[in-house]
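ok so heres the complex, two chains, lmk if somethin looks off
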Amino acid sequence: MLRSNTGTGPGTGLVETPQRWGRNYLTISLRRLMGNRVGVICLSVILLLYGAGILAPVVTPYGYNDQNLSNVKQPPSLSHPFGTDRLGRDILTRVIYGLRTTVILTVVTVTTGSLALGISLGLIAGYFGRLADTIIMRVGEVSTSFPEVFLVLIMVATLRQPMRDWLRGVEDTLGISIIHLGIADYFALSLALAIFSWFGMARLVRGQVLQAREEQYVDAARSIGCRTPRLLFRHVLPNVMGPIIVTVSASLSAVAGAEMLISFLGIGIQPPTPSLGVMIFENGSLSVLQTTPHLLLCPASVIIILLFTFNLLGDAINDAFNPRTR
Amino acid sequence: MAPYILRRLLWLPVILLIVSFVTFVLGRYGPGDPVQVMMGSKYDPVAAERIRERLGLNDNIFVQYGRYLSNVARGDFGESLKYRGRTVAELLRSKMWVSAQLNLAALILSVSLGVPIGLFAAIRQGTLLDPAAVSMTLFWQSVPVFVTGPGLLLIFAKWLGILPTHGWGGFFDTRIILPAVVMGIVGVAIIARLVRSSTLEVINSDYVRTARAKGLPETTVRLRHILRNAMIPLVTHLGFSLSGLLTTSFVVERYFGVPGVGNLLIEAIFARDFPILDGALLIGTTIFVMVNLLVDLIYPALDPRIRLGQGNAAF
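and the predicted structre for the whole thing:
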């Protein structure tokens, strides 16, 4: 069934009513994705992990900051499936709360940076050329030529306080308390990461558009009077979708990785708010691996599974969405 | 072509000016006080004020920036605040050479593993070997360096005892192997996937079928017709990975005690050692812009359909 999406179907005559399924590109691609076993499994794993992260307070057996100093560094057991850490806190609980951090950071950063900024600027640069291209590419070069760690460091440090003040104002007007959730940290980090992560996507899209621009179907679409927005979004964008989606899945893992790097520099999510990055970098040493390996391996395996499924899903989506495969 | 290169090169000073100004201002107005870090627990407000005065940290920011620029124009990047008496230029020169060797080793590893794996997977598409090869590289990409580092150390240094754990001895020393592997293994997946997906797009094209129909040997078809066209996205990526490798090397250099620029910059960040940061950013930006230009110049050579610098706003 899935192999026969050559337009009108296998030619079984009256039975084939393409309209019933909707013949548009998105529906076909989604159906192809759902027919891919690996894709479905990955999607389920990611939904599970993200769901656990979002529902962290509901699904965790302990509080993320419940210390028990008589029960520290215990290896995995029934009551603590991932063991306990230096302060006797349940690692599974902290991992799930850490997932919540990852969910927020990845979603906010990738949608604002790679998707919104990156794709639109890349389309503009590639399609219109001339001055728009020059400006966008030069600005991008400037923003990427900084080692981003350094700038993220400064931005986070300078943004965090104003962000807290602003949230305090919001709290006063709405009458809810959100500051203790560490939201200021999340926003400052996401914003800083997003500003420096759009260029990779923009450059990729631009390159693809430069290629696509020379293709006949673009000429054909223009010859029948398509306007520029339609050309861009109906003809050019779908054809460059494959690499875009692969890049999105890659940048999701990149954001999770960057979070680790930033924790390493001590400016990331501040303790006691749990973050997978902090947990992994704190325990990333030979001595931990030799004496209490669960401190490193339990959080690490969760993030490895998450990143791995993201990457596999990216490929599955690519196969499903790319009109040229099959 | 020549006007295009010239125009791009003329942009370089403008970019450098913006970069240096932004970092200069951010550095000065950013968090932390270098004098405080320098004096540590023996902080004394009066002495600190004297040091600030001597270093010119109390002047107007534009005066400071102007002074900095005129020094840089004469090739003088100033003096490190942390390593007293050592100039930024000499510190950076030796460290950058170390990092360049490490990055090159890692890049060679990524490319020499990634390109064959990508091609192999694409050619075997439809069999189990394709997803197997791709998932293997993806798995390695998903493991954080904080895990691969200790893991490889445990296996190769502690258990097998065949590789040294720490230090630096140049490009042809066994001590480069572990850090280069930790850095390079992340890039294998990216390159393999890029090569695979671009090969798949090329492999079914008319000109490949034509080449086969002409009776060209399969090796020639793969190298001349498939690989060459599949390389285009890879070239862009390689330009980029230069700056990416530099960020990974922050951690890896620290972890394996490699005296490279990543290690130096981390120390500089912690010590708020602005002259080093500013100097490294200027040099890094110059390299990055030049590599980008090079990538753009290689593009039309690989894909003649792309024409540079004609400003052909076709629409």
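quick notes: Chain B has two domains: 2-88, 90-313. thats all i got rn
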